[in-house]
Amino acid sequence: MDLLKELEGAKRIGITGHIRPDGDCVGSCLALLHYLEICMPDAEKEVFLEDPGRSFAKIKKRECLICDFPEREPFDAFIVCDTTGSKERIGEAIKYFESAAKTLNVDHHISNKEGSAMVNHVCPEVSSCAEVLYELMDESRVDAVIAELIYMGMAHDTGVFRFSNTSRRTMEIAGKLITYGFDFPMLLDETFYVKTYVQSRFQAQVLLNARRYLEDRVIVGTADKRFMDAMGAGKDDTDGAVNELRNIHGIECAVFIYEKAPGLYKASLRASTDNVNVAKVAESLGGGGHVRAAGCDYRGAMEDMVYILLTEISKQL
Ligand SMILES: [Mn+2]
């Protein structure tokens, strides 16, 4: 895809990502915004995303995020990053997507292989949407702001260059990006590593309550509304819990489930070996993601969701 060619002539451009935006999603959307500010200064550009929360409060271009999804005239071009154009995944921004004259999709989710926009650029073998985007950019127009945002997206989706989706190319790009001279240790601390007191206590309690299944190769941690209220934890505090579970010795598949609305449960799944494809597990409940990181929702009883997911996982193990 030639990004600028696809956008040629567009006077009003909208950008969005997925609901509950993560570092890759936020970094991609804002990096794209700034790239278009440089390359298409005369076009009007807006980014719509849910509030990404405390850890992203100080990142570059944060002030440009429109988090309340106001009414807008149809966009000439609307770009979806790091997700599909499905209502479940882009949430309220679906109204811009459906009314836009032209839609574009830049992503790296294998479950989005076909793409949902008029023009799709989906590279499932690439670490992050940020990396996919960087490859679409003209390097000579990349500045320190773009470099920082792309770096953040790549770092978050690779667990700071640790997961198996980290390629030689990922490291080459990251190496190039840090030469722009932003404070990457502080960026990683603020957006990735630092947790609030409540979040740390919440995760500790989830670990304490977690149970192992299938010859101790699978672990399930859960948090219902009552438990979250008792801990004073909100949905922001659930971030990272599944990775803590995944880090346990001998665990090949980690599942973390929390109640995001009464009777509505959200599961995050992680695999630490190739024995389990969690994207496939998540798809059994209408979710999706990557082979080693995926998620899905379920309405009903939490025990039923645990049972369904364990059944799917046991088919693979
Ligand atoms: Mn991503």
Give an overview in words.
- There is one protein chain.
- The chain is of the alpha/beta class and 317 residues long.
- The mean pLDDT is 96.
- It has helices at residues 3-6, 23-39, 87-90, 94-99, 129-136, 144-157, 168-178, 184-193, 197-209, 225-231, 241-246, 278-283, 302-316; strands spanning 12-16, 44-48, 65-66, 77-81, 102-107, 119-122, 211-213, 218-223, 253-261, 264-271, 288-289, 293-299.
- It has 13 helices and twelve strands.
- The longest helix has 17 residues, at 23-39.
- The strands form two sheets. It has a six-stranded parallel sheet with strand order 3-2-1-4-5-6. Strands 7-8-9-10-12-11 form a six-stranded mixed sheet.
- β1, α2 (23-39) and β2 (44-48) form a beta-alpha-beta unit.
- The chain has two domains: 3-193, inorganic pyrophosphatase (n-terminal core); 197-316, Diaminopimelate Epimerase, Chain A, domain 1, CATH 3.10.310.30.
- The relative contact order is 0.10.
- Manganese (II) ion binds at residues 24, 82, 108, 128-129, 157.
Could you give a short description of this structure?
With 317 residues, this protein is of the alpha/beta class.
Brief descriptors of the model:
inorganic pyrophosphatase (n-terminal core), single chain, 38% helix, 13 helices, binds manganese (II) ion, Diaminopimelate Epimerase, Chain A, domain 1, 12 strands, 6-stranded parallel beta sheet, 317 residues, 2 domains, 6-stranded mixed beta sheet, alpha/beta
**Strand neighbour order, sheet with most strands:** 3-2-1-4-5-6
Strand content: 15-25%
The structure class reads: alpha/beta
Describe the global form: globular
Radius of gyration: 19 Å
Mind telling me the CATH superfamily name of the largest domain?
inorganic pyrophosphatase (n-terminal core)
CATH topology of the largest domain: inorganic pyrophosphatase (n-terminal core)
- Number of helices in the DSSP assignment: 13
